[in-house]
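Trying the structure run again after the queue cleared.
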Amino acid sequence: MQTVLFEMMGVREMATDNAHPPGLQLPWAGKSVRPEQVEDELTRLWHLAADNMRTGLNIHVRTNVLNFVICALSIESALRAITQIRELSSTHIGRVILLILDANGAAPSSASTWVTLRSFPIASDLMRHHFEQITVIASGAAAYAAANIIQPLLKPDLPVYLWWADDLPGDDALFNHLVSMSSRVIVDSSRFLTPEKSCVTLSSLLDASPACAFSDLNWGRITPWRELVAQFFDTLEYRPYLAGIHHVEIEHAAAPLAEPAHTQQGEVSPNPIRALLLAAWLENRLEWRITSDKLMDEHDSAIGAHAWNMIRSTGPLLLRTGAGRATGKLGESGIGRITIRPRVHTHMHPGSICLVRLFSSIDDSQATFTINCEDDQDHVLTSVEQEEGSRLQRTVYLEPANKESDLLHEELEIMGHDHLYEETLHTIFALLTP
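Done. Tokens:
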């Protein structure tokens, strides 16, 4: 056998030039081996890496912090996910298991395994970080035994982080088995084809798996928006208006094809998850409660539009009439409202938040707080309009949080539960459950 070093997707990998068995060929995955040969082959590759260091080729750094299981439902999705790994060298992953599942019942039951070392420069190309990568393709009935297949391949005594890189599978059992062996589960709800249904599924699974922490890359994407909303009320002048908020409007970007005429044909599925996350977070922060009367709620998943009446904990509103007298007519029952709707946008990624508007009334004073993103995705216009006619506007640079590898890196740095996210996910469940 001839040892080779080759470059793939900008990442140096060490593998063995080997005649693969008939069938699927994955040269980027390394050497094809039987599952019981994985540890022996990885040991041999580490010895080769040590030989390279002694000859002065480079210095290799080996650290073991966590097992990182990446689960993909296609080879294309697996390749997309594995390209993100080159950005995660500072995370000190001990072992990556790339699990590709084909749960098609008509497919023959089989499992194939490949191994390689992946290498990244740290300070320079003379010092490189190595970690092990095991690629497993399981099809047919073997896909449903994936948890049992990869269990012996995990490094012992290290936490298991599972990144589910696609939409949730139609069969919950397949996903649940992998969750049961994981310390943390990371999803990206921007890839959900049935976003509302998948969020409800995640909330239920979170209750059933209290020992496992859950997180969503979309939660990181709305962090700049949550910060901008909070900044409105950091100043003493506007802080009293926080208790008077009675209506929240949120708009999310939808592709032109996501208009009702097209969604009815199933061409495009809008994804309002970021808007739902922001709405649920605001409900929690404002200490609103879901009313038992659902008659005024509105739900249209085909276009990603929702609306709810809420019970405000801040009591009735006092709004001024035209004659200058105070009236509690609009706030007799302490009702608030949250509205989510799509905005057709050709320059923004579908699902991105376009607008947040908060309406507030305290005593006889009213104010509207707006964050609006037009054609420039990197900047938003924030404004405060008061009844007296005063208007404060400023353009704010929106810190980009959409780079998948950066969001993934942040999630891998969290060792425990993200309680605020999990609480928000449960709120979405309550909002979407009849």
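The chain has eleven helices and 22 strands. Worth checking whether this holds up in the mutant runs.
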